[in-house]
UniProtKB/TrEMBL annotation:
Domain of life of the source: Bacteria
UniProt keyword Transmembrane helix present: yes
Membrane spanning stretches: 12-35, 47-67, 140-161, 168-186, 206-223
This protein's UniProt keywords: Membrane, Transmembrane, Transmembrane helix
Protein name (Swiss-Prot/TrEMBL): TerC family integral membrane protein
Major subcellular location class: membrane
Compartments (UniProt record): Membrane
């Protein structure tokens, strides 16, 4: 054990921890949005299980990071999926009595894991790159260690965002817009887009980010308004 710590590349350890902390903000927003409609007694379980599932999946993705990022259309399709998740998370909860609490919990957990997997397509390459500086025998252990360090921060961040959502509902729209922003970057960052040099400029990248955020907010607002109107009509 002492030999393991003595031979660690502490620079790589520090880089991985910093990367995981910086990337934890996106996870916290997704988790908070996904569990916000759960009963209070299930929110903590949703946060913990969703975080654990996302972390395990991220370790798997890191192992295949370089290969995944070179597959054409993967990021494009992932971006489209993230757009839909952003819209879905803006939907109001009607409290369907036919849906069991356990089903609601697992639905929230699945949403967290899928969204994190999509958002991690770009992020995992940063962690994998930082781990390259370490001894090959230590790389996977370093990645897992860095992710474990980030878990308390993600859980704390999710709890904080949940409190903000309860007090300021506008946070829901801001969180959904963030997912749209990330989705736009994924779509224009797909290797297939490299065939069009005109799109490989900073202005096109910013435009894609903005378009993704606006699209999620516009479509989410439309369905949210329609859902509330249908709920109001049903009440009368």
């Amino acid at each position: 054990m002492l030999e393991f710590f003595a031979t660690l590349h502490w620079g790589a350890v520090l880089q991985i921890i910093i990367i995981d902390i910086l990337l934890g903000g996106d996870n916290a927003v997704v988790i908070a949005l996904a569990v916000r409609n759960l009963p209070d007694q299930q929110r903590t379980r949703g946060v913990l299980l969703g975080t654990l599932g996302a972390i395990i999946l991220r370790v798997v993705l890191i192992a295949f990071a370089v290969v995944l990022l070179d597959i054409p259309f993967l990021k494009f399709v992932g971006g489209l999926l993230l757009l839909w998740i952003g819209v879905k998370l803006m939907m109001p909860d009607h409290g369907d009595p036919n849906v069991k609490p356990a089903d609601q919990l697992w639905t929230a957990i699945k949403t967290i894991i899928v969204a994190d997997a999509v958002m991690s397509l770009d992020n995992v390459i940063a962690v994998a790159g930082a781990a390259e500086a370490a001894d090959p025998q230590h790389r996977l252990a370093l990645v897992i260690f860095g992710l474990l360090v980030s878990i308390p921060l993600i859980v704390w961040g999710s709890t904080l965002v949940l409190k903000l959502i309860d007090k300021f509902p506008i946070v829901i729209a801001l969180g959904a817009g963030l997912l749209g922003w990330i989705a736009g970057g994924l779509i224009i960052g797909d290797p297939f887009i490299d065939r069009w040099p005109a799109l490989n400029v900073p202005s096109a990248e910013y435009a894609a980010h903005i378009a993704g955020a606006v699209l999620v907010l516009a479509v989410g607002w439309f369905f949210r308004k329609r859902g509330r109107a249908a709920q109001s009509n049903a009440a009368h």
